[in-house]
Amino acid sequence: KVRDEVARHTHEVQRCAASVAVIDTLCSLAQAAVENNYVRPRVSDDPAIEIRDGRHPVLERTLIEEKFVPNDFVMDGREHVVSIITGPNMAGKSTYIRQAALLVLMAQMGSFIPAGRAVIGAADRIFTRVGASDEIARGQSTFMVEMNETANILNNATPRSLIILDEVGRGTSTFDGVSIAWAVTEYIYNHLKARTLFATHYHELAELALMLPGVRNFNVAVKEWKDEVIFLRKIIEGATDKSYGIYVARLAGLPKSVLERAKVILANLEAETLDADGRPKFAKVKKPGPGEMQLSLFAQRPHPALDALKEMDPTQMTPLDALNKLNELKKMTEG
Q1: What angle separates helix 245-252 from helix 256-271, to the nearest 10 degrees?
Q2: Residues forming beta bridges with residue 86, ordered by sequence position
Q3: pTM confidence score
Q4: In the chain, what is the greatest distance between 2 CA atoms, to the nearest angstrom?
């Protein structure tokens, strides 16, 4: 009997529940705003976004070992459309771009936001390509998932959208990854003209700012002290050319011999030159000191036939001389 009586008033009950849900949501947002010192943002139809001293709504409450560092996010959507953000591993690039998306979302849902002050140019949609995961059940690798999500962004974003890209291209080879990341950024800038934050370790992308006037470079500040790297967590203008990956590897506990070898290879990779024998210097082995032993990646010596071939001058040889020399080289390779 009670059930039948309630059933006759289903519509009224549902309307009442919906009203209670709205009141509960608004009260929760108000309580969070008061307890965490949020401010009321101004949402406008202009594409410009200006967030001063923005904070991540979750991390500022959960960080234990250090205090959360606020950062500005300013983009006018006209002369400044794309931000390329470089910096060390673990410095806070991903946190910064996700924070920007969260604050825009909170503002548009009617909430106060954790910031000093904020003007939010409304976005029709917020697109994100963050994280790394595969879909084994569908037979899709991490890189395939990444490309599918990127394709969705490029095919559906508009000039009013906000795009968050984190390490696009990292799931494949370096050259392929850089090429894809570069082309994606160019497409967004030239065709979509959507406000975009792109966090990357591909420092080559910083050169886009020299070619496209609406692209700006930013990086996460660090301070080097003795053999330590201090992450300042502050976003500053300009590009960086270091990721401090070896330092992070040391924090993770990699053996000292591995780290020292990585430093040698890194230094020679950055030199981008060959040694006197034409071998890549990135794999040049540092001579071991007393009591040390280091295996070479290139243990074999050049074949004598190669040295003889280098000394030949074909312009000074007759056909018969060339034939005789070729016979000598053949014997050397057979011996």
Answers
A1: 170
A2: 219
A3: 0.76
A4: 115
